[in-house]
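Reviewer comment 2.1 asked that we show a complete input and output for one of the modelled complexes. We chose the adenosine-5'-diphosphate case, as it is the one discussed in the main text.
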Amino acid sequence: MIEINQLCKTYQKQGEQPVHALRAVSLRIERGECVAILGPSGSGKSTLMNMLGLLDRPDSGSYLLQGRNVGELSERELAKLRNRTIGFVFQAFHLLPRTTALENVQLPLLYSDSDDPVGRSKRALAAVGLSDRATHLSHELSGGQQQRVAIARALVNEPDLILADEPTGNLDSTTQGEILELFSTINARGTTVIFITHSREVAATANRIVTLRDGALISDELATGVHA
Ligand code: ADP
Ligand code: MG
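Response of the prediction step:
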């Protein structure tokens, strides 16, 4: 599914020391895996996710996504591949305000000529257990429900890969457990899941834990897959 080799990214601001956000990171992730990217704040996790999600390009190194060398693709081709292949989930949910759950889920379909967008969005909401909240506005939902809507939105294009950046960072521990449970259900149905966390407890719910420190990959281990 994913093969990155010697990926480097350095941020250079004028008059400041360069920040080596990624230092020669190499990683191979197979279809169907559930991988946690673990590391303290500032270790390069979001930078890595932006690369994996085709939102940013590395300074050097290569990235093969489903066998395609993404470094050779134009912005337009990247956007198309991203829309078709990847669903994103963020810490702060990023739902549109004053918009219903169903409309939020439908958003990614506005950019593709899919048939039956409403039916597909309803099925995605059902998959996250929120059929009964379809007409609620974003602010009428709890944090956990908002994150479920965001996950349904990530699922609506039936992506091969879900990328989640600190998806439980804004949630209490009970809700966190429910969202992590949902990710394992999605993964069990065949979708590759990669989530970022700074918590070892959260990371332990994945099958594999990749640890970053100061932009470098320092360990890659099998996890127990037991829920926090
Ligand atoms: P994490 O997600 O693990 O907290 P990030 O990938 O966001 O870490 O950041 C890694 C390092 O790169 C940090 O030191 C951060 O300050 C720096 N960084 C991230 N984005 C930028 C940017 N756009 N410009 C300059 N420095 C950045
Ligand atoms: Mg981050």
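The longest strand covers residues 19-29. We note this here for comparison with the apo prediction described in Section 3.2.
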